[in-house]
Amino acid sequence: MLQDGFNISAEQANEGLRNHNVDVFRQIYLAYSEELFLLASRWVKDEHLAKDLVHNLFVHLWEKGGSLTITGNVRHYLFRAITNRCLNELKRRSRFVSDDLLQWQADPSSLNEISDYILLQKELINHLQGLAPRCREIFMMSRVQGLDPSEIASKLGITLNTVYFQLAVALKYLRTHMKGKKS
To answer: RNA polymerase sigma-70 region domain: from which residue to which, for each copy (predicted)?
Structure first.
């Protein structure tokens, strides 16, 4: 009987990838692809590039599964793999990457921080679905794309006051709904 992807051991993952077991691959993909996408997005700050990097990681796992050896926790292996791919892509694009960033080591506390960040992002994305589409769009442009309110107003052809009002509505909604989740 198959288990969920979060509970696949390194040995099971290695054997499944080595034998091109579609069920094991699917479990790993379904369990980790979203978290890997969020982590990649955090590194490269480009959703399309992040999707490509995650896709390429899974293609690599499928094609090279016979020669790969996952040791330790599968999740840690995948997080490290996507982090390396992101850093390589950033270097390839000649963006500034500090030495500290390049020397990042996967220790349990840093992975827990990343996990907490990803879980918070997932929760935030779920709560954003409760906003009106235009309000959600304005919030995403401000908080995800990092646009100034004046840029948002210009791009959407609305007044600056409308942008501020919609951001206030979104923040109030999120505060109310996310505060309710804390116990």
So the answer is: 29-95
